[in-house]
Write a structure and sequence with these properties.
alpha+beta; flat; A-crystallin/Hsp20_dom; Hsp20/alpha crystallin family protein; HSP20-like_chaperone; 3-stranded antiparallel sheet
C-alpha cells in the first residue's frame, strides 16, 4: 500500500491561513484570549534512541524552582513561572504568555528508561532527554485462519 504522507504542521498552517482569510486575523487573538493557559508550552519528539522534551520556562534562577518526575510512562513537570513585569496585572493589555504555578503531565510516545534521563536548563528553555527502552521489541503474533 502506497499512501501519500501528509505533514500535519502544513495542514494546520493551511487551515490557519484559510480561516484568517475568511474570519480576519483578529479571530485568532480573540480565540487565544478565551483559551486558558495551563502551563509552559512544550514540544515532544523522538529519535531512534531518545524521547526529547522541550519546554519554555523563562525566568528560573535555581533548580529548586522546578520539579521533574517520571511517573510510570508520564513525565511530570511542575513549578512556577515568575512574572517579572514592573506593573500590576490590570496594566497588562495583551497577555499571551503563561505565568504562575503549573503542573504538566506528559505521556511519553515511546517506553523510556527511568534511569537514563538528562535535563538541562538554559536561557528559559528546558531540554529533557529520555532514553528509549532497548528491551521493548515488537513481537509478531501469528493469526490462526480456519
Amino acid at each position: 500500500m502506497d499512501k501519500e504522507k501528509t505533514n500535519p504542521m502544513k495542514e494546520v498552517h493551511t487551515f490557519h491561513k484559510q480561516a484568517s482569510e475568511v474570519l480576519g486575523e483578529e479571530f485568532w487573538q480573540d480565540i487565544a484570549e478565551m483559551i486558558p493557559k495551563t502551563g509552559p508550552r512544550v514540544d515532544i519528539y523522538h529519535t531512534h534512541t531518545a524521547v526529547v522534551v522541550l519546554a519554555e520556562i523563562p525566568g528560573l534562577s535555581s533548580p529548586d524552582q522546578l520539579g521533574i518526575f517520571l511517573q510510570g510512562q508520564n513525565l511530570v513537570l511542575e513549578g512556577e513561572i515568575p512574572c517579572t513585569y514592573p506593573v500590576t496585572e490590570n496594566r497588562i493589555t495583551l497577555n499571551e504568555r503563561f505565568f504562575g504555578p503549573f503542573r504538566r503531565v506528559l505521556p511519553m510516545p515511546k517506553p523510556v528508561c527511568a534511569d537514563r534521563i538528562t535535563a538541562k536548563y538554559s536561557r528559559g528553555l528546558l531540554l529533557i532527554e529520555l532514553q528509549i527502552e532497548a528491551s521493548v521489541q515488537q513481537t509478531q503474533i501469528p493469526i490462526d485462519f480456519t
